[in-house]
Each structure stands twice: as structure tokens, then as C-alpha cells.
Amino acid sequence: MIPGEILYAEDPVPVNEGAEVTRLTVLNAADRPVQVGSHYHFAEANPGLEFDREAARGKRLDIAAGTAVRFEPGIPVDVALVPIGGRRIVAGLRSATGGPLDA
């Protein structure tokens, strides 16, 4: 191995393998694009996004870490959500949860 060399896997690396997936259609009813990051508690996403927030409670986008989905005004987008892992504590954001998801 050469210092700084990047070795790529021969096969695709599975992301969120085995996680329960929830599929929702999201509509950006606002007049500006909205972007949501990979680990954001999706139920607390921008209020301009219209979707089933109760179905999204405790979930995040099923996308690679550090990436995001952009929602353009007036265009419906189908997304896949997976449960937030770890200790399942959501702090900050829009303060709709403010603590443990399973309490």
C-alpha cells in the first residue's frame, strides 16, 4: 500500500442493509428548493415539505452518510426512510422531538 492510496472494493458496499424501509412521497409546496441531509430526523424536515410526518417519525433518509436529497418546488419525490440507529436520541433541529425517540 502506498501512503494516501485509495483501495476501492470490487463489489458495491451495502448501505443500511437489513433495515426496515418506509417509502413516502414528498412534495415541496414552498417556493424555494429544500435540501435534507442523510442523518436529519425526517419528520422534522422543513415545514414546506408535505408528507406523512407521523410515518417519518424516528426515521432518516436511506442514503449514504454525508449526502442529501434536494426537493424542488412543486415536484413530488419518492424517498426511502430507515430508522435512526444508535441510542435514538434527537436533540435540537426544530424541537418537535427534543429527546429519546422511544420514550
Automatic annotation (TrEMBL):
Sorted UniProt keywords: Cytoplasm, Hydrolase
Keyword Nucleotidyltransferase carried by entry: no
Superkingdom, taxonomy of origin: Bacteria
GO biological process, one term: urea catabolic process
EC number: 3.5.1.5
GO molecular function, a single term: urease activity
Record-linked Pfam families: Urease_beta
Pathway assigned to this chain's UniProt record: Nitrogen metabolism; urea degradation; CO(2) and NH(3) from urea (urease route): step 1/1
The keyword Hydrolase belongs to this UniProt entry's keyword annotation: yes
Class of enzymatic activity (EC top level): hydrolase
InterPro entries: Urease_beta-like, Urease_betasu_sf, Urease_subunit
Signal peptide: none
Cellular component GO terms held in the UniProt record: urease complex
Cellular compartments annotated: Cytoplasm
Record PANTHER family: UREASE
NCBIfam families: PRK13203.1 (NF009682), urease_beta (TIGR00192)
Assembly and binders: Heterotrimer of UreA (gamma), UreB (beta) and UreC (alpha) subunits. Three heterotrimers associate to form the active enzyme.
Protein name: Urease subunit beta
Organism per entry: Streptomyces albus
Underlying gene: ureB
